Amino acid sequence: MAKQSPKDIAAFPELFEGMEQFAEEQAAWLRRSVLAALALAAGMAASPLLQRLF
After folding, report:
1. Which residues are CB-neighbours of 16 under 8 A, at least 6 positions away?
2. 8 A C-beta contact, residue 48 and residue 41
3. What are phi and psi of 33, to 5 degrees?
């Protein structure tokens, strides 16, 4: 596999036009997924405690 250089992007800017937006969308999706997983884990951890109290 050939190693890419910054010159490749400069030579074909039209191929990389939407790359920043794509990366931002993927990062936002990852953040939402991580937050959802943490919320689920917190709910599962709190459930036995709440059952003991009520």
Report:
1. 9
2. no
3. -65, -45
2 φ, ψ (degrees, to nearest 5): -75, 140
At position 13, the amino acid (one-letter code) is: P
Predicted confidence (pLDDT) per residue in 4-32, tens digit: 666 666 677 777 788 889 999 999 999 99
Tokens at 48, concatenated = 């036995």
Q: Is the pLDDT of residue 34 over 60?
A: yes
Task: Determine the Cα–Cα distance for residues 8 and 3; give it in Å rounded to an integer.
Answer: 10
**Type of residue at 10:** A
Amino acid letter, 36: A
